[in-house]
Structures are given as structure tokens and as C-alpha cells.
Amino acid sequence: MEGKTIVIGVIGSDVHAVGNKIIDHALTKSGFNVVNVGVLSTQEDFINAAVETNASAILVSSLYGHGEIDAQGMRDKCNEAGLDDILLYIGGNVVVGKQDFEEVEQRFKDLGFDRVYEPGQKIEDGIKDLKKDLNLH
């Protein structure tokens, strides 16, 4: 994974730092260069870090249920910043209440996310998808 930089963080007013640290550790252990923008991060924090580091992907975490609001327009902002080809993933408890995951996944894909992970999904699944999407072996 040498040379592949991944930007991670927790979007919006969410302060769930533990999962963010676990994701950081797992990606680093898998050989990715990780740029962690931390908690309470704006879309611009992710995008600016991706531009500055020539990142291959942005992984957005949200556990407080407002991910759909916080992620509105993020793909458009990525495109405006010249990140048309960047992979955009989101995961966690991204909506309020219990909702059908297939519907939630489709809504986030309609927002421009390439992959959407439901609560409780293992980071190993995301790493496997990253390697596949980045054509890494």
C-alpha cells in the first residue's frame, strides 16, 4: 500500500474518537498512509487534507446519526476541489433511528459515496474493499 494515502475522520458535531483511532490503527497496520483529521471535522477538513496529501480515498465516520445531513454535497465539493476520482466511503450510525440499511445505502450512494457501511461492520471489510477499489493486491 506504499504511496496510497487515506484521509479519515469523524464528520460534523460527532466526537466519537475511539472508533476513529481503531480505523486509523487498522489502516496503518495494513500499510496505508493515514491522514486523520480527527473528530468534529467539516467536509472541508477532509477535502483539504485529501488535496494536500494527494489522497486516494476519504473515509468518513459518523456515529451520532446525523451523517446524512453532514455529508450533503460532499461529492460536489470534492469534484470542485479537483478530486473527481477520489474514493468516498462512509460508515457508522449515519442516520437517526433504525432504518432499512439498503435504503440508507442507496441514499448515500445518491449523494456520491462509493461505499456505505452499516453499524457494526468490521474495518477489515472496508480495508478489503479499499484494496479492491485501488487495484492493490
Write the layout of secondary structure elements.
Layout: E1 5-10, H1 17-29, E2 33-36, H2 43-53, E3 57-62, H3 67-70, H4 74-80, E4 87-92, H5 101-110, E5 115-117, H6 123-133
Parallel strand pairs: 1-2, 1-3, 3-4, 4-5
Short structural description:
This protein has 137 residues and is of the alpha/beta class.
CA-based shape? globular
Total strands: the figure is: 5
Q: Please tell me the overall pLDDT.
A: 94
Instruction: Tell me the fraction of residues in β-strands, as a range.
Output: 15-25%
Largest sheet: 5 strands, parallel
Q: Would you give the CATH topology?
A: Rossmann fold
Assembly state (oligomeric) = single chain
What distance lies between the first and last C-alpha atoms, to the nearest angstrom? 9 Å
Rg, Å, rounded: 13 Å
Q: Topology as H/E string?
A: EHEHEHHEHEH
Number of domains: 1
Summing up helix and strand content along with how strands pair, one would put the structural category as alpha/beta
